[in-house]
């Protein structure tokens, strides 16, 4: 089992809809989680970090963490074509020597 | 402030040659990661430096790959006897601590002919 798993997609949503991106992790000791966005040909950039159970909102983005079920999600409200990118989930893993582990990414396409 | 920088931005080399890729992390960041990303693929972890600890080399794909970090700052990734399958974008990231937010450099695109 991979430490951090994401559906590779592509996930396609119409403009204005809510995009829901999901991520599961295997290390129950993981404490810190991050969502990155990567446009084609560019480097990943941080969207949000989350450390506590529950929801964390920042503008159109909401990160959700459920440690009991070991999943993290990212909701994008009022999706825009400019949100089309690959979204990477990352979590810390003490099973892996305390470093950040990235999922393979989910490709999101927002259709006008 | 300055972000993570990498050089060169592009490198074209011939099969069998050695290459060196450089990463300048954000000042004060103790952790530095190298990743490789092939076209359309996810991030492949290569190596992780954390402070003065021995580096985590568990992701290096072969003994042709090595990396060092001098003075806890600049890092160099060296690929010896390059092969065509080494062609990829090599990304460097730094963070204040090992499990903090990582900030990525712009990457080096390596093409092995």
Please supply descriptive tags for the structure shown above.
heterodimer, A: 112 residues, mainly beta, six-stranded mixed β-sheet, 11 strands, 0% helix, globular, B: 113 residues, four-stranded antiparallel β-sheet
Question: What can you see in these coordinates?
Answer:
- Helix content of chain A is 0%, strand content 55%.
- By secondary structure, chain A is mostly beta strands.
- Helix content of chain B is 0%, strand content 46%.
- Chain B has strands spanning 5-7, 10-13, 19-24, 31-37, 44-50, 65-69, 75-79, 88-95, 103-104, 108-112.
- In chain B, a hairpin with a 6-residue loop joins strand 4 and strand 5.
- The model of chain B has no long low-confidence stretch (mean pLDDT 93).
- With 113 residues, chain B is mainly beta.
- Chains A and B meet through strand 5, strand 9 and strand 10 of A and strand 4, strand 5 and strand 9 of B.
Number of strands of chain A: 11
Using a beta-carbon cutoff below 8 angstroms, give the protein chain pair with the largest interface and the number of residues from each chain: A-B, 20 and 23 residues
How many H/I helical runs of chain A? 0
Helix content of chain B: under 10%
- Mind telling me the C-alpha Rg of chain B? 13 Å
| Beta-strand share of residues of chain B | over 45%
Q: Which whole number gives the mean pLDDT of chain B?
A: 93
Largest sheet of chain B: 6 strands, mixed
The biggest sheet of chain A, with number of strands, parallel, antiparallel or mixed sense and barrel status, is: 6 strands, mixed
Please report the total strand number of chain B as a whole number.
10
Order of helices and strands of chain B: EEEEEEEEEE
Q: What is the helix content of chain A? A: under 10%
β-sheet strand percentage of chain A: over 45%
- The stretches of 5 or more residues of chain A where confidence is low (pLDDT under 50) are none
- The quaternary structure here is heterodimer
Mean pLDDT across every amino acid position of chain A? 92
**What is the H/E string of chain A?**
EEEEEEEEEEE
Radius of gyration of chain A: 13 Å
Structural class based on helices, strands and sheet pairing of chain A: mainly beta
